[in-house]
Structures are given as C-alpha cells and as structure tokens.
Design a protein that fits this description.
Blueprint lengths: L2 H13 L2 H8 L3 H15 L4 E3 L4 E3 L1 H27 L7 E5 L8 H11 L5 E5 L2 H9 L5 E7 L8 E9 L1 E5 L9 E2 L1 H4 L3 E4 L5 H12 L5 E5 L3 H9 L5 E3 L1 H6 L4 E6 L4 E8 L6 H11 L6
Parallel strand pairs: 3-4, 3-5, 8-12, 9-10
Antiparallel strand pairs: 1-2, 5-13, 6-13, 7-11, 7-12
Length: 294
C-alpha cells in the first residue's frame, strides 16, 4: 500500500467515477484502475462496487475511506509544514468566489499570489455564499469571497468585511424610470423581478428589504447566474437589484439607478479559523494589499 493508491481511492470516492478521478489525478484511467485493483488485492476486499452506470463505495470502502483521507491530508500537511519552515508555500490554495464579487480584482490578486508563491497552485470554485461557507466548515475550501446582507456574519469561520455598498436597481435601457436619479422600493414593488433562488443569501438581501418596508413583489425569475439575470433585464422581462460594480462590468443594455431605501451588501473574506493552512495564510496576506476592481 502506498500514498498514491490512497490518493486514487479518495479521488474515486469524491467523483464517483474512475474516469473523472483519473483526470483529477492526471493519470490514465487504466493506470488508476490497476493501482486500486492492486490495493484491493492487498486488502483482500473490494473497496468499490462497479457497474456500467455507477461506482460506489462498498461497506469496506466506507470504513477505509476516512483513514485514506486522513493519510493523504497528513502527507500534504507534512510537505506544507516542511516548506513553511523554509518560507515557501507549496500546497494548493482552495479558493471559493461568488460570481458577483466586486471588492477584489480576483485575477490581479491571484497574479500577485502566484508571483509571491510560484510553487502553489490554485483550485477555484464559484458558488453562492451559503455553499462556500459550508465548504470552508467542511474543510473543502481554505478561503472564500462572499456577499451577505449588511449585518450578517458568516458563522463557524473566520471573516472580515472588505466593503459594504448599497444595491442599485438594474433596469432595461428603455424603462420609464431609467433616467431617474433615484427610486424607492415602493417605486419598484409593482415590477416583475429576477433574483437569486429563494433561501439563498443573495436573495435574502432584497427579500429582507422589501419585507421590512411592508412591500410585496413578484419574483417571476429565479436565477443563479448573474449574466443570465442581466440578460433578462436587458430583454425587458424583469428588473433586479445588484451591487453597482456588477452592473459596471456588464456589457448588457441596462441602467443602474440608486435606490434610496434599498438594501446594502457586505463583501467578506472568510477562512478556516482554527488551523488555517499555509496557502490560506499567504493568500490573506496578499489580500491585505489587494488590487481593487474598477
């Protein structure tokens, strides 16, 4: 039994696929399958139940997997800690990013990180804030850039606020209020809205604001992709509320109008607080002098 075999077991368990696991590990599927088969012969038990349609852990595999994960993690930490003594960062930075991040110029920040730590690679995940916070707590991410309703604090992780800004109304270019200097939530309440899915932190920003104002609205389009949301607005099908920086980046024919009593959003950087990895600490240091997106 060797460490590479354990890495292969973890990869297959994570992806439920020998093909995807081989891609993740940068080996051929036949090589990966051969190594897992050799490990199963050594153990004397099958770790995976294979069929033409699926791959799943056997009962033995379920018992074996936590120890395989722990061994792979311990080996990675040994390398990282040894490198840290020499002042190097060699582990992968696992970074989560919301699609509407505006407080940080992510490419420029990652360029600065890679220039400072060329032996560290970066694994990027795009998702909503709730999922990214959960991934940090589960140990699947090191750092995440989040967007939360003003006053909300991500629980179970370390965090700090990067910026707080009021959302703007995003209207089609030909909308009757497109030339307005500002509007109110009452002005928008009768409009058809596109917004993030119900129950997400992105949606909570607007839902809470309208509820606090005693107003109801029609969210006819629930969208988890901001580009599609802006497409719907540009097509005249809906209006929405977004951070002003998101609208500035858009090439769609939309107009941003100030909302006098609109909600505010805080962007946070969050990290695993109890024992942050060296890559996470290094990224947070780079972020202190972060390039901002204009």
């Amino acid at each position: 039994m060797d460490l590479q075999q354990l890495r292969y077991v973890v990869a297959v368990a994570d992806t439920s696929s020998f093909t995807r696991a081989a891609e993740r590990c940068f080996v051929t599927q036949s090589a990966l399958s051969h190594q897992i088969a050799a490990l199963e012969r050594e153990i004397g038990q099958r770790l995976f139940a294979r069929s033409s349609r699926s791959v799943r852990l056997t009962e033995v595999g379920e018992a074996f997997l936590p120890h395989a994960r722990a061994s792979v993690l311990a080996a990675r930490q040994a390398v990282e800690h040894a490198a840290a003594v020499a002042g190097e960062v060699v582990g992968a930075l696992r970074l989560g990013v919301i699609p509407t991040v505006t407080a940080v110029d992510v490419p420029a920040t990652l360029r600065a990180y890679r220039e400072a730590h060329p032996r560290s690679r970066v694994e990027l995940r795009v998702g909503n804030s709730d999922a990214l916070i959960g991934a940090i707590r589960a140990g699947d991410l090191d750092v995440a850039l989040l967007g939360l309703r003003e006053g909300s604090v991500p629980e179970g992780v370390g965090s700090r606020i990067l910026v707080t800004e009021r959302l703007v109304a995003v209207l089609p270019a030909g909308h009757l209020r497109a030339a307005s200097v500002a509007v109110s939530l009452a002005d928008l309440a009768a409009e058809t809205f596109a917004d993030f899915p119900a129950g997400t932190s992105g949606r909570a920003q607007s839902d809470t604001a309208f509820a606090s104002a005693g107003l109801e609205r029609d969210v006819a389009f629930e969208v988890d992709e901001v580009d599609l949301m802006l497409d719907l607005v540009a097509a005249g099908l809906a209006v929405t509320l977004l951070a002003p920086g998101v609208v500035r980046r858009s090439r769609e024919q939309v107009v941003a109008v100030e909302v006098q009593d609109g909600p505010a959003r805080s962007e946070h950087v969050a990290w695993e607080e109890s024992a942050p990895r060296s890559a996470a600490r290094a990224f947070l240091e780079v972020l202190e002098g972060r390039p901002t997106r204009r």
